Amino acid sequence: xxxxxxxxxxxxxxxxxxxxxxxxxxxxxxxxxxxxxxxxxxxxxxxxxxxxxxxxxxxxxxxxxxxxxxxxxxxxxxxxxxxxxxxxxxxxxxxxxxxxxxxxxxxxxxxxxxxxxxxxxxxxxxxxxxxxxxxxxxxxxxxxxxxxxxxxxxxxxxxxxxxxxxxxxxxxxxxxxxxxxxxxxxxxxxxxxxxxxxxxxxxxxxxxxxxxxxxxxxxxxxxxxxxxxxxxxxxxxxxxxxxxxxxxxxxxxxxxxxxxxxxxxxxxxxxxxxxxxxxxxxxxxxxxxxxxxxxxxxxxxxxxxxxxxxxxxxxxxxxxxxxxxxxxxxxxxxxxxxxxxxxxxxxxxxxxxxxxxxxxxxxxxxxxxxxxxxxxxxxx
Length: 380
Ligand SMILES: [Zn+2]
Description:
- The protein is of the alpha/beta class.
- The protein has a domain at 43-256: Rossmann fold, CATH 3.40.50.620.
- The protein has 18 helices and 7 strands.
- A 5-stranded parallel β-sheet has the order 3-2-1-4-5, with helices on both faces.
- Helix 3 (81-90) runs parallel beside helix 4, helix 3 (81-90) packs across helix 13 (255-265) and helix 15 (303-313) packs antiparallel against helix 16.
- The longest helix has 16 residues, at 49-64.
- The structure holds zinc ion (ZN).
């Protein structure tokens, strides 16, 4: 329990994630759940069960595909490297793929280029779904101001819209990339069944798709979002029978590997990076940078920490090198470019944006020294 911040800030001894990160506890030995899951996953994937997982995937596709239907699966995409990798992997099993991209505004040119690769190079049909701008604007501004996260409503859309589209097309399977619960947070990976069996049931919706700690429906009502749009954020019983497959649970899931494969198809990365050392991430839209900047203010760790932790777990970085990167990138301020993008989209002044951002700086972990904010308990 870190809510009181009375205890010491601790960092995982394997990666560099701290106990301030929500939903990723450290055990008595000082190791986080995400690190332990990677070890369990390696054991599963490297054993004979690798073949079992592959054939399970094949069987699920076979069992759930409908004869003579145009599509076997919906795959959720954004325009990042993982989207391309997902489709390359899926095409080994079926060519009847419908890609669905949820557009929450602030899309980038690079992201649009990468998204088009799906239609132009991978020869897959694509639906781009976007709510009316005035609704996104309302939701993003409210969640930024009140919860310090402009992406609050984007997450449920990403996990709700592809199933809704699947149901409408008579498709039984929805495919995502990695399972964030297993790759980055507290869901303990115990056995192979945890990887394979996921349905779009109420439990999955309430604990993963929706925010368990925030009542989204009451916010939607408060903001007078029309009933038909509210349905995009709420649980719908008719989706219950859908099968949800996280590719990362069946096959190798490694950001650098995914990037190399996507690059061969024509994937473009960012020219520069901000808040992290990777240029091939956060390429599709600009909310993401603000989301992670606010995370830094609230919990004392940013996007670089996420990437460095992942690279340690996959064996690409030593803990010491990761610490150097975190010190260099994690606390980088939000640049003019992002501020301008957000202010223009939300129609607010930079002064107002700065005020909102600073409101979320957690004074229990930040201290001002010589006019500069520094972390009280930095990673060492
Ligand atoms: Zn760890």
